[in-house]
Write a structure and sequence with these properties.
The structure holds two protein chains of two kinds. By secondary structure, chain A is mostly beta strands. Helices cover about 10% and strands about 40% of the residues of chain A. Chain B contains six helices and 24 strands. In chain B, β18 and β19 (about 310) form a beta hairpin. The chains are: A mainly beta, B alpha+beta.
């Protein structure tokens, strides 16, 4: 009898615990991964800039379709960083997808912060039928072209209002996405228009909402004023979140090449934000990628550029640098930097861990020196110690 | 690169049978022995690789149902070029005893593919296949380069090139040149940036270096603007620029022009002339500008709004982009209308309505436009 009562008590307790667990689970907010509800062919038309979100989610900037697509890479196994070195990585990918090497364009490179695998976005072909590719290079150097069918995904449109001209097939305006960063439930996207001269930084909540307007996020006009007497809007090429004196900023690099800090707190819906130029890194140049890091107790930012090599910016106490406001024109000014002469022909740069980065190197393309275009030779993936 | 058709089977079965039959009638006994020999040899040699309906197949080889220990790629693989390269990605199946490989990506035009089959203990088979034929007809043409005027301001911001068919990406700056009056190519004229294409690769935007246009910057002070007032230039586009198929353009393009004074004033709607048509006609509503405006923005930044919503119609842009006209699909009804214009509409120098490209921050008129649109009211009578 006592045994029966004991069993009954245990059963009741188990039920109670089960109900409590269920209630707890029910109250827990849905994981971002669970919001990637579509399963099938990821609707990518192009694969440009990429950024990692939580749970192995990769954001792919698709300028051709005017959207960002979040894809489940299913790459969630935590691992330490490994030295990844693969020569002729573009030639190998081209062979795997059946095109000549010159028809394979690598557009961006990022490292999965959890698995430490390398991801590349690429284009199979240069014409209108070019196909988007997402490629993983694992610790052993094995190259995998991710299947884009049967994946879990979600997408958000960046497109504008439809054209009022009923004869127009589509709105011809294209926002070419230049860079993306995910932070604290928001995807920040910068881009430039093919038709008008503008500067915009969109802040898109993630998980993406179904409300179209909300999904578009906030469009901000960034004015990097304090740059002399005359000021223009300009498109951001690459940016990173950065903490300066306890305040969070977007540290953005523009073509020709001002480095501008914009406080996150200023990024309010509908705001016209004034950024502050804290460095000029030189004319006739476009920044490619930025990697902030710490070494020997000091802060640095490594910046890869199209024409001015790889720069190591001294990033201690950035709050102490006065805005570049003098009307006296200067080519290079503000926060000091050194150029890393050993790092040449860097096409892409990504952080691997606290002390290492990955670079993709290759000879410039056959175009003029100021705009060589995509490299037509071999590209090598190489792990380097942060300088 | 030229295209060639796929390789077919080496010899047809009918032809072999006819030869054997004639020999049989002539030599009988000897023929039996020869036929046996030929048959055995043919059996050993007829293993071939064929490509049809997007798949490579090993023909006349009985495939086991299970792959070899190192997998199907160890005996059958396709390569998109010579040398030691990884094979094509794809899937293997055995269908009615035939080994089939389906590439994950379609064969690409102009590419030479090498198929290798090495049966266990058998003779190696290697065949070459070619991607689909490139259609060389109807070469792509340059339809127009905007602005079309033959005088461009010294702070001209952008050029828009329109093609008759999609182009290849990544090589534009090899093929676009600005020459001075002596025919010498001018360096550092355009923005060192990526190519800005429209969605179908038929519209390309080229930006003059804004660092040389924006007053007060080093490039502007040292090098001056890309275009100088009073000087002559020629924009040249090479004919050997390849379109999306890899075929050169039908012809190159030359646009001679002179540099004019910089445009520093913002587009002023008060200086525009709006001509309203008569009611119950489908005549065009016409807006005239005293200076050329940005062609692609004129195409999409103006709309006609009536009492019952936007009016559907077609837009024409003429007279060197100084005239915009709108022809309605239905006859105009008498009433009040608005021509609604996006304030982001630009002139040739990138000046918006009420906002210059490079704002003079020392002056009180450093306005930043707060409204997205302006409206020009008109009546149809």
């Amino acid at each position: 009898m006592r045994l029966v009562r004991l069993v009954g008590t245990i059963a009741v307790l188990c039920c109670a615990v089960a109900i409590m667990i269920r209630v707890t689970v029910a109250r827990k907010p849905a994981s971002p991964l669970s919001t990637l509800t579509a399963v099938g062919n990821a609707p990518l038309k192009s694969a440009g800039p990429i950024a990692f979100g939580p749970d192995g989610i990769l954001f792919v900037g698709d300028s051709m379709a005017g959207q960002v697509v979040a894809i489940d890479t299913a790459d969630r196994k935590a691992a330490g960083a490994a030295s990844i070195n693969v020569d002729d990585v573009n030639d190998k990918i081209a062979a795997m997808v059946g095109v000549e090497p010159g028809q394979l364009l690598i557009n961006d490179m990022k490292v999965d912060p959890v698995s430490k695998d390398v991801y590349l976005s690429a284009s199979r072909g240069r014409g209108p039928d070019a196909m988007p590719l997402i490629v993983r290079v694992d610790h052993s150097g094995k190259i995998t072209v991710l299947p884009l069918d049967g994946v879990k995904y979600a997408s958000v449109a960046l497109s504008d209002a439809p054209n009022s001209d009923p004869n127009a097939r589509t709105n011809p305006r294209v926002v070419t996405i230049t860079s993306m960063v995910y932070m604290d439930g928001k995807l920040f996207v910068t881009g430039l228009s093919n038709e008008e001269w503008s500067s915009a930084l969109r802040s898109i909540p993630f998980p993406f909402t179904r409300d179209d307007e909300a999904a578009k996020g906030t469009t901000l006009k960034i004015w990097h004023s304090s740059h002399g007497r005359y000021e223009t809007q300009a498109p951001i090429r690459t940016f990173v979140p950065y903490s300066i004196a306890g305040q969070e900023y977007v540290l953005a690099a523009y073509t020709c090449t001002p480095l501008v800090k914009i406080p996150f707190s200023a990024l309010e819906p509908g705001a016209q934000v004034n950024g502050t130029t804290i460095a000029d890194l030189g004319a006739r140049n476009s920044p490619l990628d930025m990697v902030p890091y710490k070494k020997d107790g000091h802060n640095y930012i490594l910046i890869a550029n199209t024409a001015r090599g790889v720069m190591k910016l001294q990033a201690d106490n950035l709050e102490n640098y006065q805005p570049i406001a003098s009307p006296t024109v200067t080519d290079v000014a503000g926060v000091p930097y050194t150029t890393i002469s050993d790092l040449k022909d860097v096409q892409h740069l990504a952080q691997l861990d606290d002390s290492h980065a990955l670079i993709l190197t290759g000879k410039p393309g056959p175009g003029p020196a100021w705009a060589p275009g995509p490299s037509t030779g071999p590209l090598n993936l190489q792990t380097i110690a942060l300088p | 690169m030229g295209a060639r058709s796929f390789h077919g089977p080496v010899e047809s079965a009918d032809h072999r049978a006819a030869v054997a039959f004639r020999a049989l009638r002539k030599y009988r006994c000897l023929a039996v022995a020869v036929a046996l020999f030929i048959g055995m040899t043919a059996a050993a040699q007829t293993v071939s690789i064929q490509f049809s309906r997007g798949a490579f197949q090993v023909v006349d080889w009985k495939a086991p149902s299970r792959p070899p220990s190192n997998g199907w790629p160890s005996i059958f693989a396709i390569y998109a070029g010579p040398g030691n390269i990884p094979p094509l990605l794809g899937t293997y199946t055995v269908e009615s005893g035939t080994l089939v490989f389906r590439p994950r990506f379609p064969l690409a035009p102009g590419v030479k593919y090498r198929a290798e089959f090495q049966p266990p203990g058998g003779a190696r088979v290697e065949q070459t296949f070619y991607g689909p034929r490139v259609n060389l007809t109807s070469p792509t043409r340059i339809l127009q380069v905007y602005p079309t005027a033959d005088v461009l301001p010294s702070n001209q911001l952008r050029l828009f090139i329109y093609f008759s068919a999609p182009m290849s990406r990544g090589e534009a700056f090899q093929h676009i040149h600005l020459l001075d009056a002596h025919g010498k190519a001018l360096p550092d004229v355009f923005l060192p940036d990526e190519e800005l294409w429209g969605r179908d690769n038929q519209e390309l935007t080229i930006t003059f270096d804004p660092g040389r246009i924006k007053r007060g910057l080093t490039s502007n002070e040292k090098m001056g603007p890309p275009i100088e007032n009073g000087k002559s230039y020629t924009l040249v586009i090479d004919s050997h620029w390849q379109d999306g198929r890899g075929v050169p353009l039908a012809a190159g393009f030359r646009k001679p022009f002179r540099g004019g004074p910089a445009i520093r004033a913002t587009p002023d709607p008060k200086s525009w002339r709006l001509i309203a048509p008569a009611a119950r006609t489908t005549r065009a509503l016409v807006l005239e500008f005293p200076e050329p405006m940005s062609y692609p923005l004129l195409r999409r930044m103006l709309r006609v709004s009536g009492e019952r919503g936007d009016i559907l119609g077609g837009v024409a842009i003429e007279r060197h982009e100084t005239q915009w006209s709108f022809t309605p699909q239905q006859p105009w009804r008498p009433g009040s209308y608005n021509l609604v214009i996006d304030t982001a509409l630009e002139d040739l120098a990138g000046n918006h309505i009420g906002q210059r490209f490079d704002i003079d921050e020392s002056k009180a008129d450093t306005q930043k436009v707060t409204s997205d649109t302006i409206s020009l009211p008109f009546a149809i009578r």
